[in-house]
From TrEMBL, chain B:
InterPro entries: ThiB-like. Gene3D superfamilies: Periplasmic binding protein-like II (3.40.190.10). This is Thiamine ABC transporter substrate-binding protein. Residues 1-23 form the signal peptide. Keywords: Signal. The keyword Transport does not apply.
């Protein structure tokens, strides 16, 4: 670091003093007022439907039948499912952390050409639908896959396939959550430790690791949550021999219509997820205080020496194997036609000649974009006001509110979908056949992302700036326009983009809602895959590639927008 | 410069979102208008439902009803949704309930009676609710073992003919089936074995299959594309549980639609019959339109459109089959069938038992 | 490397604790430190002085092993440090913004270096207490570092750097963030502390006052190169270049031509020493050497008045006056040549706008190499 780049002095440990934040300054909305919108949204489109379906299960004829609870919990098969759900989630989490931490380090500390692309690429899997990922992974580790060709190695229908796919999906969670904080830690803290005699690893362990611990815990919990509730991966890659709680809920609800058992399992999963979210909220709170952060832009540098170059090369290699290879398989198969490689399948997407669809698959792209845009708008409004409320308030109520809005991430899509069906079934809220249902369901998943992106940035806006604007004669609205908006604009765009990408790839909630005949990309892919014939398969792969490119482009554009002090994503 | 593009981008985003929102609202209000006019009939169905545009347009022309399609993920999910919303349905007509799920739907009083025109041309074997007329058969298909012709030619052995053959050591490690708990053809194949060997005998048969190296995968897509050698060529197993109409589909979507013989064949002794029904939903907003749609589904126009759209057979005897089917399709003389009530009663026990036997 | 980190146990006492030999550090294509030769003797305090971007912080980082040299060598105790990792060099560095570990309390910060070396709990506690006493923070061990004032953080950082007994202590803008009063007091404290402990110190600062008060020797850097090195008195009294002169705060510099012991410049002809190199040069006049008298009266100064010449009669207008406690600084606009700065007593200071005549005392002038 040269003298030319002075590092800002230590900011007060946790922003301006609490008194300053809470009382003074122009303030138009209070936390409770801002919470009304999100709470109503959440209650109407999540709480009520889920409660309705659970109620239908546990009180079939107006009588509570709680004997079911004990029966389900003591069932040997269910206990096996619970055990598998837990241990595979724990194993996936450990494996993801081990593989992704070097990546987080490299992205946080080194500058190298293509860094933005790398960050975007590792995030693509996170927003891809499991149908697509399942197909890609099978092409890699299944029968006739690359590993099979090379070494005769097959991992499908083994637990390794599930674990690897979980790493593939969640690599970005660790890289973005941990790496995001890491890049804002002053590297000179470690240097100070080394000058005091600590070795490179010792300095990391004693200085950086404690600072990273809250982010690590938050990332681990998120990965655990996502893998604990894993559905598509387990179904497609694990084969029939493996079932998570989520798969079992799906089976009991969608296949057997055994609502009592499904209700008990849903409550069980709720309890587990709520516990995780409670811990997560706690770690997030710890993360946001007591650390002095610097601008991420000032902390990276080109790798030096053989060791660092090896590390960078190692990370690039592992990303290539874990992320690029499966994605590459998709592309390869989309190009492979009867007469060798070509763009036949892509051309076929634009026509109706092959007859699979009344609407050409490319129209699905339009449907997807439109629905995702509406979902994004809803998620932004709901998530944005929730984040604003969280910024303004403190205390148990608000923290509970934060955790509550994350609950949809850990709830079975089939529960929500069926809940919609029986809860939103009478005017004025008969939305069952409305096109709005799909974006609403997608927004439920998008809201937590919006909050996680917006919250740290909103919290970082120093109230004294608004006070300064006010003393210069700005009205509260004007002060918001001049002070807040420019500061949060990047975060707003980032949040919108993330919600958009997540909606694009959302599959679970969409399939359990009877919807107007406007297939989205993931649905169109699933329909193509559901038909015999090589051309259908090729077109499914081509459409998957299109979806992947749309997601990647969105994410890459977002990399340009990422605020220097971003939150978890 | 950079700042300006920034500002443009951030301003453009809400505008873009707003416009799409308005556009979406616009298309919605159109729908509302037509619904209010009573000229829309809503069809609740599953992902595999398809119909030609001109055939559907013919219906609108004749009756004045626009058809609005609501889709669920698959037949099972669709029926369960219909059961949950019985009496206050999402639409007017439901299409796609099959004989394995029929009793569940009928017991939940999902349907209102309507005797569709054209039913006289439907053989009695398809009319499972004759007399009450709550459901109307529309199409049928057979879940059968398909084989890779090239593989068997090369290996110099005859493809299997019936279920017994599959347990023969000659066909060791050749068959891939789907999870009966999660896949429709998987369940159909299991039910076929129950029909063939009886409620007390199918377990032993599956034990033999397991000993003979049967592979179980989760879904049809994976079995057919990833494990079966006859389609995309990725897989290593020349026998797969699929449909009797898969060979015509292979030809139509294959590299050469004029090929002499389909690359895959059907073991006709392994087939379990699936019949798909449609019915007028109890509590429908537009029962007249629904009835008209049911009649239309048994019309020759629709019946003759069915094969190439959904790859199933029409139920009307007098419906002409396309050449693709007559040339490449298999004729199943005596498919396996099970009593719908028995299926409803025992299905989950059979699946559990099967899971313990074969998967775990 | 068997070398110990404790200064007294070096194989044989080297004449210089630190020696830099044509040290060059590059960031990309830019040489931030460019061929610097420098040595610091045992127990000596050397202060590197330079403006922002002169490469002085990078110099410290190179000695510490945090910035790899592109060329040249760093020797500590006579041993080449190439390949010696940071934590084995036995040097201490006090960062500009302290870099205290926020997750540790004061005692844990001070004891960090001892802990990573595996010192026992009791030994550590004793040493921490001793150092906290030394820096005037006895009993503050259990406080959290974020709750400390700037001056207290400074002292903790110092105690932490000293705790492992480094053979070289480096200070990066040690007092930069403190207010003026505290700074002046701390400089005195630091100097006496270093004397007492016999610590070898290499400090960098952009504040000449700090450098002169602290250092036995001052090194002025400019764009990665050493512009001048010497004792504070040497550097102050004989700046080696116009850059150094201006950096030290002298603004009375003018282009001159030297001929026969006289420098001819815009302000007139000024007598210089006999041996002065003939030809173009730059002339520095200290503000104290500019004697002011009201128009009409002869300019009278403390020094020897100049011989009769045009200099006695340089007419100026007083642009502004700045009080500096015991004296006044005058900003003058001469009738020819660039602006002049003069000091005079409060009593004799002319009003703003007054027309004055100035005389330049040759004893308060320095002849510098010509500027580019």
């Amino acid at each position: 670091m040269s003298d030319a780049a002075p590092v800002p002095g230590p900011p007060p440990p946790s922003g301006p003093p609490a008194k300053l934040r809470a009382g003074a300054g122009p303030r138009r909305f209070t936390a409770p007022a801002l919470m009304v919108g999100p709470v109503v949204f959440f209650a109407l489109f999540f709480g009520y439907p889920v409660a309705a379906i659970v109620d239908r299960g546990l009180r079939p004829d107006g009588q509570w039948e709680l004997g079911q609870v004990g029966e389900v919990l003591t069932d040997e098969g269910i206990r096996q499912v619970l055990w598998f759900t837990t241990w595979q989630a724990a194993a996936s989490t450990v494996l993801t952390l081990l593989l992704a931490l070097p990546g987080a380090y490299v992205l946080a500390r080194f500058s190298f050409p293509g860094k933005r692309v790398l960050r975007a690429v590792v995030t693509v899997p996170f927003v891809l639908p499991t149908v697509v990922v399942g197909a890609a992974f099978l092409g890699l580790i299944g029968r006739g896959g690359l590993l099979d060709d090379l070494w005769g190695l097959r991992l499908d229908t083994t637990v390794w396939a599930i674990l690897l796919a979980h790493v593939f999906f969640n690599y970005a969670v660790v890289v973005r959550t941990v790496g995001g904080l890491w890049s804002q830690l002053d590297p000179r803290q470690e240097e100070a430790a080394r000058l005091l005699g600590a070795g490179a690893f010792g300095a990391w362990r004693r200085v950086t690791l404690p600072a990273l611990l809250p982010a690590l815990a938050a990332a681990a919990l998120m990965v655990f949550l996502f893998t604990f509730t894993s559905f598509g991966v387990v179904q497609i890659l694990g084969g029939p021999g493996y079932a998570t709680l989520e798969v079992e809920i799906y089976r009991q609800t969608a296949k057997l219509l055994n609502l009592p058992t499904a209700a008990v399992l849903t409550l069980l999963q709720f309890a587990a997820v709520a516990a995780m979210l409670g811990v997560h909220a706690w770690t997030v709170r710890r993360r946001e205080s007591a650390l002095r952060l610097v601008d991420a832009a000032a902390t990276d540098r080109p790798p030096r020496g053989a060791g660092e170059r090896c590390l960078l090369a190692g990370v690039l290699a592992s990303v290539s194997v874990l992320v690029l290879l499966p994605l590459g398989v998709l592309v390869e198969r989309s190009l492979r036609g009867p007469d060798g490689y070509g763009f036949d399948h892509y051309r076929a997407l634009a026509t109706t000649e092959t007859g699979t669809f009344v609407v050409p698959p490319l129209e699905a792209v339009g449907n997807s974009l439109r629905i995702a845009a509406v979902a994004t708008l809803i998620a932004l409004v709901v998530g944005g006001s929730a984040a604003a409320a969280l910024t303004r308030g403190a205390g148990r109520l608000v923290r509970g509110f934060d955790a509550m809005l994350m609950l949809p991430l850990g709830t079975s899509a089939v529960t929500v979908g069926f809940g919609f069906l029986i809860a939103l079934d009478s005017p004025p809220l008969d939305l069952r056949s409305s096109w709005l249902l799909v974006p609403l369901a997608q927004a439920l998943v998008g809201v937590p992302f919006v909050i996680r992106v917006m919250l740290p940035v909103l919290r970082a806006v120093d109230d004294r700036l608004r006070q300064a604007a006010a003393t210069l004669g700005a009205s509260p609205l004007r002060a918001w326009w001049e002070v807040d908006l420019p500061l949060v604009r990047r975060a707003l765009v980032l949040a919108a983009g993330f919600a958009f990408a997540v909606s694009l790839g959302e599959f679970g909630a969409t399939v359990f809602i009877a919807r107007p005949d406007e297939p989205t990309l993931p649905v169109a892919i699933a329909r193509l895959l559901g038909r015999a014939g090589e051309a259908n398969y090729g077109q499914a792969m081509a459409l998957s590639t299109v979806l992947m490119l749309v997601c990647a482009t969105t994410l890459l554009a977002l990399e340009r927008v990422r605020p220097a002090r971003s939150g978890e994503f | 410069m950079k700042r300006t593009s920034w500002r443009t981008a951030t301003l453009a985003l809400p505008v873009l979102l707003g416009t799409t929102f308005l556009a979406a609202c616009g298309s919605e209000s159109e729908d509302d208008a037509t619904t209010a006019g009573g000229s829309t009939v809503t069809l609740v169905t599953h992902n595999s439902f398809e119909v030609s545009e001109d055939v559907l347009a013919g219906f609108t022309e004749r009756t004045g009803y626009e058809v609005r399609v609501l889709r669920a993920d698959d037949g099972g999910v669709m029926v369960n949704q219909a059961v949950l919303s019985a009496g206050n349905p999402q639409g007017d007509v439901l299409f796609g309930v099959d004989n394995t799920l029929l009793t569940r739907a009928l017991e939940a009083d999902v349907f209102a009676p309507h005797r569709a025109e054209g039913l006289d041309a439907v053989p009695e074997e398809f009319q499972l609710d004759a007399g009450e007329w709550r459901v109307t058969p529309v199409d049928h298909g057979d879940i059968c073992v398909n084989y890779d012709r090239a593989w068997f030619t090369e290996a110099g052995i005859e493809p299997p003919q019936d279920l017994e053959d599959l347990a023969d050591p000659a066909y060791r490690d050749l068959l891939v089936v789907q999870n009966a708990a999660s896949s429709t053809p998987g369940l159909g194949f299991l039910l076929g074995s129950v029909a063939e060997f009886g409620q007390g005998g199918w377990q032993e048969y599956w034990q033999q299959l397991a000993d003979n190296g049967v592979r179980v995968v989760d879904g049809w897509e994976q079995a057919y594309y990833e494990d079966f050698s006859g389609s995309s060529g990725e897989g290593d197993r020349p026998l797969v549980v699929s449909y009797a109409t898969s060979p015509p589909a292979e030809v139509l979507y294959g590299p050469d639609p004029d090929i002499e013989e389909a690359p895959t064949g059907v073991s006709t002794g392994t087939c379990f019959r699936q019949i798909e029904f449609a019915g007028l939903l109890e509590g429908a907003e537009n029962p007249e339109g629904g009835a008209a749609l049911l009649d239309f589904m048994l019309s020759l126009d629709f019946q003759e459109d069915v094969p190439l759209q959904m790859f199933v057979h029409p139920v009307r005897e007098d419906a002409a089959l396309p050449e693709l089917f007559t040339r490449h399709g298999a004729t199943v003389e005596s498919p396996l069938t099970l009593d719908a009530d028995a299926v409803t009663e025992h299905r989950s026990d059979w699946v559990d038992e099967w899971t313990n036997l074969v998967v775990r | 490397m068997k070398e110990s980190i404790v200064p007294q146990s070096g194989p044989k006492p080297p004449d210089s604790m630190v020696r830099l030999e044509s040290l060059t550090v590059r960031y990309g294509d830019r040489s931030v430190v460019d061929g610097v030769d420098l040595s610091v003797g045992a127990g000596e305090t050397v202060c590197v002085l330079g403006p922002s971007g002169s490469g002085k912080s990078t110099l410290l980082r190179a000695v510490a092993g945090l910035a790899p040299p592109a060329e040249g060598r760093v020797l500590l105790g006579g041993h080449d440090q190439a390949g010696v990792p940071v934590h084995r060099r036995g040097v201490g560095l006090m960062f500009q913004d302290h870099q205290l570990f926020p997750q540790h309390d004061v005692a844990a910060n001070v004891g960090f270096g001892l802990r990573v070396r595996g010192a026992g709990r009791t030994e550590r506690a004793a040493r921490v207490a001793e150092l906290l006493g030394l820096v005037g923070l006895a009993g503050a061990g259990s406080r959290t570092v974020t709750a400390l004032s700037g001056g207290e953080q400074q002292r903790v950082a110092l105690a932490r750097a000293l705790a492992p007994g480094p053979r070289l202590l480096m200070l990066d803008e040690p007092l930069g963030q403190l207010d003026r009063g505290l700074r002046e007091r701390l400089v005195v404290e630091l100097r006496s502390l270093f004397r007492r402990l016999g610590t070898t110190v290499l400090a960098v600062t952009h504040d000449q006052g700090e450098a002169f008060a602290l250092a036995d020797r001052v090194v002025v850097m400019r764009e990665g190169r050493v512009e001048q090195a010497g004792s504070p008195v040497e550097v102050w009294s004989r700046p080696a270049s116009e850059f150094v002169a201006r950096f030290l705060g002298f603004s009375n510099v003018v282009a001159a031509t030297v001929a026969a012991g006289t420098a001819h410049c815009a302000w007139g002809a000024i007598e210089v020493s006999e041996g002065a190199v003939e030809g173009p040069a730059a002339l520095l006049v200290r503000p104290g050497g500019v004697h002011v008298a009201a128009t009409g009266a002869p300019a009278v100064g403390r020094g020897r008045p100049g011989a009769d010449g045009p200099a006695t009669g340089l007419g100026c207008v007083v642009r502004s006056r700045t009080f500096r406690g015991d004296h006044v600084v005058l900003h003058l606009q001469p009738e020819r040549g660039p602006a002049l700065e003069a000091t005079c007593s409060l009593r004799t200071a002319p009003e703003e706008g007054a027309a004055v005549r100035v005389a330049i005392d040759p004893a308060e002038t320095v002849l510098l190499p010509p500027s580019m």
